[in-house]
Amino acid sequence: MYDSLLVVAVEEIRFTKELEDVKLDKVGVDASFECELSKDGQKVEWFKDSKKIRPDMEHDIQVEGKTHRLVVKKATPKDMGTYRADFMHLSTSAKLAIEGSVHSNCCRASSSDRLHAIGTVVLSRELGSVVSCKCN
After folding, report:
1. Does pTM top 0.90 for this prediction?
2. Phi-psi region of 125 (alpha: psi -120 to 50; beta: other; left: phi over 0)
3. Domains located in the chain, CATH noted
């Protein structure tokens, strides 16, 4: 009779680099979130305020080895919020904020939250809403 022992080593996968908050000083530039897992070949799912993000005209999802990146293209106030990367039961999150003033074509935010202003529009950091507007 043979006695045998099978030992299986399972590598614990974890985030080795967590997401960091992104603060933009103007609207219309790309925002990039990046995290890293301890093992190649894994799939991260991306979310904004609990809504799943898929690659589209506004979002680019990139994977290079262990590094996972979400690019929010030409960020606007509607893009402000909390972004999250999930891997199985693990998660990391960060916020996108747009600070400072914005110069555009008319002095109000449209229903799609894209700004159109001649003058200066000041945005709320946390809510993505217009705090004040001064037309030139």
Report:
1. no
2. alpha
3. 15-99 (2.60.40.10)
